[in-house]
Amino acid sequence: MKRKYASILETIGNTPVVKINRLAPPGVNLYVKVEAFNPLGSVKDRLALGVIEEAERTGKLKPGQTVIEATSGNTGIGLAMVCAAKGYPLVVTMAETFSIERRKLMRFLGAKVIITPASARAVGMVQKTVELAEKHGWYFTRQFENEANADMHSRTTAQEILRDFEGDALDYWVTGFGTGGTLKGVARVLAAERPATKIVVCEPEDAPMLSSGIDQQRNADGTPAAAHPSWKPHPLQGWSPDFVAKLAGDAAASGAISEVLRISNADALRCSQQLARKEGIFVGITAGATFAGSLQVAAKAPKGATILCMLPDTGERYLSTPLFADVSVEMTQEEIAISRSTPGCWMPDAQ
């Protein structure tokens, strides 16, 4: 890595691939790509930079123009960083169901956050974004349909994977999907450059849209016309809004996907916690879900197989979610007993 950078934006990408040691089954080489190493902690930093720079290059985004996007959080956080560094005002819309940490992070970075009702779900926040963009003449980045999203992953994420596994086998690449940018952008490069690599996609068990076989209804511009009938509310924030994004639909239609796995909420939460406690890798709920999928792949893979699992974000933006529900603020009984095992400086009111 460089020692000096011209701006924070130059630090996006080139995230590490890390071997899993204690959680991997014997005889399988299991690796994870830790996107939390991006400057604002998620894979969506790549998307944010890609769509803004493409809009600048094509003249769609004018100097000083306000940027707007609908987001569950990570894209908005990434856009807030990029817009702060480049000098664009940012407005994001976000359904009230998403974690409050994300709202605070975006506002701390200077963005305006417009909360939409939970009842309107993700389709509602997109519709609100379209209204605001048209009303005020703001630039709508359209993360769910914008080809610059997938192109950024073809230029960066996919090339990093090819570089890191040059000369080595890569039997499976396991990922989730939200916008579909990572999925489409990486899958088409692997299909061309590493056709033996099987692409496995994970989705929530409670929202099995890709594996349902039911097509997503779309408007002429690719935006969702309605919620997908297979969607139900789930805690895997950042994955699977209540529609299949156009970019994700493109990837599915391409035939590049070998398998779609349905991941339970319990497995997602458990695997996120296990990655922290047994590997020291601190990631969010969707990373836990993708890792749960990679363990399913590993259980069936032949001996000696190599698997790469995408871990999309850090765990810190999930503090108010079920991921941390069992983490106590006060000392546990075991911690109290440890404290009282020596005479000095223990809390007399601890019970």
Beta fraction = 5-15%
Q: Please state the CA-atom Rg, rounded to the nearest Å.
A: 21 Å
**Strand-pairing-aware structural class:** alpha/beta
Poorly predicted runs of 5 or more residues: none
Tell me which CATH architecture of the largest domain applies here: 3-Layer(aba) Sandwich
The overall pLDDT, averaged over residues, is 94
Domains (count):
2
Q: How many strand segments?
A: 10
Share of helix, binned: 25-40%
Q: SSE order, as H and E?
A: EEHEHEHEHEHHEHEHEHHEH
Strand order of the largest sheet: 1-2-10-7-8-9
Instruction: Tally the helices.
Output: 11
Structure summarized in a few sentences:
The protein folds into 2 domains: 8-38 and 154-324, Rossmann fold (3-Layer(aba) Sandwich); 44-140, Rossmann fold.
Please, could you describe this protein's structure?
The chain has 351 residues and is α/β, with parallel strands linked by helices. It has two domains: 202 residues, Rossmann fold, CATH 3.40.50.1100; 97 residues, Rossmann fold, CATH 3.40.50. Helix content is 37%, strand content 14%. Strand 4, helix 3 and strand 5 form a beta-alpha-beta unit. The chain is globular. The termini are far apart. The mean pLDDT is 94.
Secondary structure elements and pairings:
Layout: E1 17-19, E2 29-34, H1 44-58, E3 67-70, H2 74-86, E4 90-95, H3 100-108, E5 112-116, H4 121-136, E6 139-140, H5 147-155, H6 157-164, E7 172-175, H7 181-193, E8 198-204, H8 246-253, E9 257-263, H9 265-279, H10 285-300, E10 306-311, H11 333-339
Parallel strand pairs: 2-10, 3-4, 3-6, 4-5, 7-8, 7-10, 8-9
Antiparallel strand pairs: 1-2
Helix pairs in contact: 1-2, 1-5, 2-3, 5-7, 6-7, 7-8, 9-10
